[in-house]
Amino acid sequence: MLRDMEELLNSVYDDDVRAYLKEALKCYMSGSYRACVIMSVIAGGYDLHKKVKSLAGSNKRFKELDDEIEKKKSALEVYEKYLVEQCATEEIDMLNNNELKELRRCLDTRNDCAHPSNFICSPEKARDVYSSIIDILAAKPVLFGCKHMKNVIDEMEEKTFFPVIDSNKMKVIVEDKLGQFQKKAIEPLLKSIGNTIKNTKSTVQKDNAMRFLALSTDFISERYENFITDFIEKDQYEGELLRLLDINIDILKYLSDINIEKIICKLETNLTASEISNIEVWIKIILSDKLQDEKFIGSVAKNITSFKDKSLFTDSPNSDVRFQLVYSILQNEKCLEKFRNMIRNGCYKQFNLAHFEEFYLQNILIQLDDNILYETWLKAINCYINSSNFNYGNRAVNVFTSIAKEYWIDKVSLELKISLVMNILRQGKKDSNYYSHDCAELMWNLDKKYPKLVETFLDHIFENKENNDINEFLVDKYAKIISRYIVSYESKTESIINQLIELRDSNLGAKSILDEIKEVVVNSFQDEFKKSLLPKL
Fold first, then answer.
1. Of 44, 388, 402, 453, which is most buried, counting CB atoms within 10 Å of its CB?
2. Where are the alpha helices (DSSP H) in 272-358?
3. 336 is in which domain, residue-wise?
């Protein structure tokens, strides 16, 4: 399809140049095709000289070319061909070889049209010259070549290179800078910026260069990966890679699957360390759309939940960094439910007491709020509370009391709750000089701190007539603490007392418990409920 010549005219940047080309269009419309060609080429030469002049103040080579053109004009010499050819040189680098070839053709056509000859200028040829001048020159702003790369990189040494801190506004600045360069110069420029990041000793220049490179993704999306390959492949640049991703996490969208896999390997290496540097950036990477894709989400979830085995017999303060990472991920609103479920599945394993002493693991339980995980946690606590090693008992009690009962007490099995109270009683009343003092202290306060546990235990003991556990705990050894639990269970205190009265003659433990209850009641003369029990006793 033929392009509309008036629409082409509207794309011209400079008003003066547009005026020349408007005259050329009028010539074309009136059938003066030779005049159209001549006016178009004059406009092109004028436009190109203006662009050289606009750059002359900041570049010596442009200044020399501008001076030379002015001399030729003053001497009324033909200057257009010289100007075009100089602008295609390596030093000026405003035109590429194809553009030079096209402009030479336009100049030859202009010469044919300007001199008496039998040359016939067709409307098609005039239209071709008119559109070529606009496409190559007039419709473009001043475009820099490769020689101007150094100017941009030098500017990065200034703190004011990015006068704003908002990433969207910085991105506009980056795209504006890149838009001033010819297409052929953009890739060398970004490559040079990458080298600047690696080699500069100026922290300001390095920071500006990283922002520039990180925010240039949309401008050269198809080949962007090429400019950060070294940062991905070489371990020495991991810090720079993370900084780039922190500035623009969308960089991940432009990376191949193999490079994403390399980043996941870097994550795995970090997870084996004693601490993760840049943990917030890693969280951002893990929760990116790219890594939560089907191809990678399973691998990531497996890596971050491959918690280290931890011995109970070490006093090493080193924590598994995965716990902190997982906890932070679960707190983040970008954590998809699918990923959360994968993390939950990764946590379905038998942790020992040392794991549960981890602050972050305890908080992971609360974040996931899963019955199975709470059950696993309480089983480990229960196992160690009645350990032969009183130190383990103390540690287990500390872990147990660190998670508020509101989170788990209605989410674990009755059997486990009953067993827990039994083990607390066994350890708290152990016939030995070596027992868990923390466990004993908890035993004497269990009815106040965990009344539901006490009630569950008493229901088990007294509501099931065939329960053998009654024989273990209705003995003198436990009389004082059991009596305390019974009196605290107000809704069933009387019914339990009635059962004990029935057993009093046949069970010395029942008699001892009733005696202890009576002692409690007598000493609680201001408590109306307890005083009401006295007649029964």
1. 44
2. 279-286, 294-304, 321-331, 337-346, 353-356
3. 258-350
SS3 495: helix
What are the Cα distances from residue 267, in Å, to 279, 325, 494? 10, 11, 62
Concatenate the DSSP letters of all residues of 504-527 into one string.
TTT-HHHHHHHHHHHHHHHT-TT-
Task: Check residue 524 and give its pLDDT.
Answer: 62
As for how many domains the chain has, the answer is 3
- Rounded CA gap, 427 and 413, in Å? 21
Map residue 124 onto helix, strand or coil: helix
Structural domain contains residue 193: yes
Question: Across residues 134-144, what is the average pLDDT?
Answer: 81
Rounded to the nearest angstrom, the gap between the alpha carbon of residue 525 and the centroid of all alpha carbons in its chain is: 63
Instruction: End-to-end CA distance of the chain: give it in Å, rounded.
Output: 109
Q: Kindly state whether residue 510 falls inside one of the protein's structural domains.
A: no
Domain boundary among 255, 276, 307: 255
Please tell me the distance from the alpha carbon of residue 179 to that of residue 184, in angstroms, as a whole number: 12
Percent of the chain clearing pLDDT 70 (strictly above): 93
Instruction: Judge whether 182 lies within some domain.
Output: yes
Q: Where are the alpha helices (DSSP H) in 30-96?
A: 33-56, 60-74, 80-87
Distances (CA, A) of 109 to 19, 124, 394, 517: 21, 12, 98, 118
**Tens-place pLDDT, residues 64-83:** 999 999 999 999 898 999 99
User: What CATH number is attached to the domain comprising 115?
Assistant: 1.20.120
Question: Does residue 129 sit within a domain?
Answer: yes
Q: What is the pLDDT of residues 245-270, one digit of tens each?
A: 999 999 999 999 999 999 999 999 99
* SS3 (DSSP) at 162: coil
Domain boundary among 350, 375, 391: 350
Q: Which two tokens stand for residue 238?
A: 């991991």
Higher pLDDT, 467 or 357: 357
What letter represents residue 426's amino acid? R
Residues 534 and 532: their CA atoms lie apart, in Å, by 6
Residue 435: the pLDDT is 76
CA angle at 258 for the pair 257 and 259, rounded to the nearest 5°: 90
364-400 as b/e: b if 16+ CB within 10 A:
bbbbbebeebbebbbbbbbebbbbeebebbbbbbebb
| Mean predicted lDDT score pLDDT of the chain | 89
160 and 125, same structural domain? no
Residues 108 and 124 occupy one common structural domain: yes
pLDDT over threshold 60, residue 174: yes
Residue pointed to by tokens 């005049």: 35
Whether residue 16 is found in the same domain as residue 111: yes
